[in-house]
Amino acid sequence: MQIRPFTVDDCLPAIAFWQGMAGITLNESDTPAAMAAFLQRNPGLSQIACVDGRIIGAVLCGHNGRAGSLHHLAVDPAWRRRGLGRQLVETCLAALQQAGIPRCNLFVYSDNETGNRFWLEQGWDDPSSWKVLQKRLLQSTG
Ligand SMILES: CC(C)(COP(=O)(O)OP(=O)(O)OC[C@H]1O[C@@H](n2cnc3c(N)ncnc32)[C@H](O)[C@@H]1OP(=O)(O)O)[C@@H](O)C(=O)NCCC(=O)NCCS
């Protein structure tokens, strides 16, 4: 098993890996072109875990100069509870720290029980005094 930076060539297989996975919702930012643009804006931050060239884990990571963001962390069901999710996240956070980014945010659906347990176990805060507000700027194509 190898963890390595997510490259533009990984976009199509990673989208196939995420498709249909409980806890992961793909949207208009998950076309190969949009994902390639995200990777180019955030070189070396997103990570892939693979075995014999096959993806068994993936996470997108970026930052805006003030805070990092993680998206679509997922591990193949056959490889879960072996510390792979934790390793993928730690690799991203180390790269963000290296870039001088002091904090990282992520979205997790309230009803994603596994996801919530995973993040809280890794020491992520769930500050009940915050709300996430969002405004759609383009009509959804999906
Ligand atoms: C969330 C996910 C990435 C975790 O990957 P993983 O490789 O199984 O996680 P790890 O083995 O690194 O788990 C680290 C710790 O998190 C906690 N944890 C992970 N999965 C858990 C579960 N199903 N129930 C309770 N705690 C869990 C445990 O404390 C675990 O440590 P332990 O196994 O020593 O008890 C994986 O379950 C997944 O792909 N889920 C579907 C996609 C998803 O919901 N992603 C999150 C989007 S926000």
From TrEMBL:
<keyword id="KW-0689">Ribosomal protein</keyword>
<dbReference type="GO" id="GO:0005840">
    <property type="term" value="C:ribosome"/>
</dbReference>
<keyword id="KW-0012">Acyltransferase</keyword>
<feature type="domain" description="N-acetyltransferase">
    <location>
        <begin position="1"/>
        <end position="138"/>
    </location>
</feature>
<dbReference type="InterPro" id="IPR050832">
    <property type="entry name" value="Bact_Acetyltransf"/>
</dbReference>
<dbReference type="InterPro" id="IPR000182">
    <property type="entry name" value="GNAT_dom"/>
</dbReference>
<dbReference type="InterPro" id="IPR016181">
    <property type="entry name" value="Acyl_CoA_acyltransferase"/>
</dbReference>
<keyword id="KW-0808">Transferase</keyword>
<keyword id="KW-0687">Ribonucleoprotein</keyword>
<protein>
    <submittedName>
        <fullName>Ribosomal protein S18 acetylase RimI</fullName>
    </submittedName>
</protein>
<dbReference type="Pfam" id="PF00583">
    <property type="entry name" value="Acetyltransf_1"/>
</dbReference>
<dbReference type="GO" id="GO:0016747">
    <property type="term" value="F:acyltransferase activity, transferring groups other than amino-acyl groups"/>
</dbReference>
